[in-house]
Amino acid sequence: MQKLSVQDFISMWKCALDRVTERADEFSRLDAVTGDGDHGTAIVQALTSSVDMAGNATEYKVLLSEMGFNVMMHTGGSTSTLFGAFLLGMSDHADGSELDGPQVVKMFRGGLEGIQKQTKAGKGDKTMMDALIPAVEAMAARGSNDICELFNAAAEAAREGALATKEMKANFGRARNYGDRSIGTADAGAMSWACMFSAFHEALAG
Amino acid sequence: MQKLSVQDFISMWKCALDRVTERADEFSRLDAVTGDGDHGTAIVQALTSSVDMAGNATEYKVLLSEMGFNVMMHTGGSTSTLFGAFLLGMSDHADGSELDGPQVVKMFRGGLEGIQKQTKAGKGDKTMMDALIPAVEAMAARGSNDICELFNAAAEAAREGALATKEMKANFGRARNYGDRSIGTADAGAMSWACMFSAFHEALAG
Amino acid sequence: MNTKIMTKFINEPENITRELLDGYVLAYSDKVALAAENIVVRAVPKDPSKVAIVTLGGSGHEPALSGFVGEGMLDCSVVGDIFAAPGAQRLFQALQLFRRDAGILLVVLNHSGDVMSANMAMQLAERAGIKVKKILTHDDISAGIDTPEEDCRGLAGCIPLYKIIGAAAEEGKSLDEIYEIGERFNQQVATLAVAMGSCTHPQNGATISELAVGEMEIGMGQHGEGGGGRQMLESADKTAEIMIGQLCEKIQPKTGDKVLLYVNGVGSTTLMELSIIFRRAHQVLAKDGVEVVHAKIGELLTVQEMAGFQMILAKLDDDHVELLKNRKADAPYWTTV
Amino acid sequence: MNTKIMTKFINEPENITRELLDGYVLAYSDKVALAAENIVVRAVPKDPSKVAIVTLGGSGHEPALSGFVGEGMLDCSVVGDIFAAPGAQRLFQALQLFRRDAGILLVVLNHSGDVMSANMAMQLAERAGIKVKKILTHDDISAGIDTPEEDCRGLAGCIPLYKIIGAAAEEGKSLDEIYEIGERFNQQVATLAVAMGSCTHPQNGATISELAVGEMEIGMGQHGEGGGGRQMLESADKTAEIMIGQLCEKIQPKTGDKVLLYVNGVGSTTLMELSIIFRRAHQVLAKDGVEVVHAKIGELLTVQEMAGFQMILAKLDDDHVELLKNRKADAPYWTTV
Ligand SMILES: Nc1ncnc2c1ncn2[C@@H]1O[C@H](COP(=O)(O)OP(=O)(O)O)[C@@H](O)[C@H]1O
Ligand SMILES: Nc1ncnc2c1ncn2[C@@H]1O[C@H](COP(=O)(O)OP(=O)(O)O)[C@@H](O)[C@H]1O
Ligand SMILES: [Mg+2]
Ligand SMILES: [Mg+2]
Ligand SMILES: [Mg+2]
Ligand SMILES: [Mg+2]
Fold first, then answer.
1. Which CATH architecture has domain D189-316?
2. Among B residues 99-158, those touching chain C with beta carbons less than 8 Å apart
3. For chain D, which terminus, N or C, has the lower number of CB atoms within 10 Å?
4. Per-residue model confidence (pLDDT) at position C221
């Protein structure tokens, strides 16, 4: 797959919504151990608000900015801003209605930078960043023109990163207050992002 | 036993306090089914407030009136007024510091009249009256000069009366709101009065 | 009664009432004080030329009843132990403190223990030449809407009554006038309680009124003693409809009538839920053109940690509206600016 | 998370926030209104020449935060879903509504979600030329008294802050002046929470922060997220002593100092218990000659039906006392005469 159309892109998000919805309870359960038990609800809401904006969009920049603002209007919690900032960051780095491999990488890197304007959390802090950063890095490192392959790499890295959060101590978010007690449970946000990247790949791999 | 001294009388109440205290949980448990679960606490408090006033009393009238007012100052709930009225009613019908059989009956009848000024409940209404009325009637019917025997009769009648409340439907007190659902559980107040009459007899029988 | 591990922040069970009253008057010392054991009075007494409003009732229902002692509401609350009326002699002591030519209006909630204490205390007061009139509340409709007044319990409907007669007393109205205003309100107020889940008696650990998970009882009393019947838990909207329906049957509000609507939480039911319940009850009234002119959502009279609420509906005359809404009150748990 | 039979009076879980806000503004329509979805404002707006006080936070904590919108307190509360900060765009919508030359003071409780929404909304506001200043609350001391501010959560200490800065804004003080008054309070207030028993997330039925019967956790957060450490339940007096001891270590009140002491119930813990707790904490302060000049016992900020409470201690400067006690406030859940 050499080109990612807006419609392909939308189908990636729809697939993510489906897969995350199936596992929403698991994400809330993880959040209940070290947070407030609502991450499953939050991430489903955020994806729903994003997909709601898809309609018959034809252009990346506008679509992504509408998705971002809609998330930040209709959903809440940490997920709202982080997700919204990711979408707005992508919007700032995407043009036209079809992207090639390097452009896809650039767009995702833009999303990551958008989030990094809102949080100082980095790798090892036991947050969604432990899935997202490796995913984006893996896409860039793969340097392939096959977009499907890029997402395969991203999904794999996100999954590994997410699972690794289990042994970490939380430095950000509600889980931080648990101190050492946060060790032993994977981070809800990292797990849901891993699920999304895996769905992105699934949508493209067919 | 032909004469009941004030000291004998006080020992009856002390014995009642002991026996009721032992079974307080049972009375609260009964009250929890059809009332608010505090009758055991209430009746122990009332007896304690009564016995507290005993000190070195030498005379029935003053002792009983002090007992009655102390109960109505330091305890509460339905038990407070009913018990207080019983003691004040006895006070109105007792003189001196030693009573013979008929005088004892007269004093207890006075107590019953005192209560009857405060409540219209009669036999069959599933209240303490189902123990108290038969007890006083049995004392009068026995007409003996042996005071110990009077209380034996009273205790027997109170016990029977109290057990019979199990099959009754409550017409007074909190239990009334349960309607037919009050059937099947004995009345807490009737059971505690039966326990007291049995203790009165025990104290005199040695 | 299942005695279980107590999960309450208390010390010795027998000291609960004394300690909670101590804490209460320490926190609100500019408004309330203890005149004697279990007798809560205003920190700054009302002019003795005015009628005094006194009430009585067990503790364990906080903020009721003592939370409403203050300017424009109660002069005195005589407190019994948990769920128990205070003894007659204690109440008589309070009546002696408030002896005055204008008289005392004694508000009694219809519960066997309270009524007996009140009657006995009034007999003592009469002998002592104290002027006191009794007003009985009987707002519970769980026994059926045609049940005679003496068989209806007094629930949280006493609290708006305190505000109404408290404001009337503050204005200097006579004992008979205040009684008439209050009695008119009593005839027009109805309350219905629903419980879901039990509560623990804090002194003996007894679980009172055990309800299975997912069950509710409409018509519950406020000490865990039963009433209506049990049924499966319904949605907030359905529950609100059932309850406002029964209340309307009693009160019969017509288009254009002004009413009071309160949803009183009794313990662990959240304000979140109470607000959702209120919403639906209000919608039902609005649909019939009934105007809610005074409302409260909150905990006024509780039953330990029981889950559930009481819904109170009252038809208001113009003087009631005036006294409820436009007269200052400044009690620790009720303030009207 | 153990999904269990829901025992709450709700309708569809996803409608909870909307329905509870509907009920709330119906009940208190003379005081509050909805300006837009999830944006609660005063029914009668403050003069636009004065600084507006806006706050944000998740629902499920009723009466907080929207219960304190009203004369002399908040102008606006922007509400998120249960335990979730509102999105930045929703908050930005509210900031647009309150755009004024005098400026907006935005009160943010230090929680990751709230802070991120606030920062993002402020970036949007800045671009739109709206004058807004942020004040962050960080009163929780459970992370240790030397923990940097940015690592301390905002608990119920925000509520007296609303009263203080709300009164200052009502007086017509400038944005900088109000900020200074509020920030001075923020430096002198400390809160500690204790939980016993868990609570249920009303939308997904998750049991958050399962505690064994007879266990308590001092340092709990207000969404069931943990904090301090678990220990066996202590008596009311002992618990009060531990908590006021830790708060005093942070606040260091001296003989003659004036302080505020609140005991805020978070759910199913009764006012009875809270009063007993208050009593002991007050005694400890009094023994050291510290004067409690302002107190509250009640539910200001709740965590569903969780059992437990938050204790709030603050050293007050004279202007704080004045603004807290002697300035009118008329919000649905806070009235100062
Ligand atoms: N400051 C932060 N930086 C990065 N990620 C964060 C931060 N705070 C929270 N998160 C992520 O958000 C997840 C929780 O999301 P969610 O439950 O929706 O938010 P909330 O904590 O507001 O309930 C966490 O598992 C974590 O991955
Ligand atoms: N009106 C009444 N007349 C006679 N006995 C009554 C009446 N009300 C209650 N009782 C008796 O009192 C008992 C309950 O006592 P207690 O639990 O101390 O009072 P309360 O109902 O105030 O909690 C009942 O079991 C019943 O025997
Ligand atoms: Mg969460
Ligand atoms: Mg009882
Ligand atoms: Mg009782
Ligand atoms: Mg949340």
1. 2-Layer Sandwich (3.30)
2. 118-119
3. C
4. 83
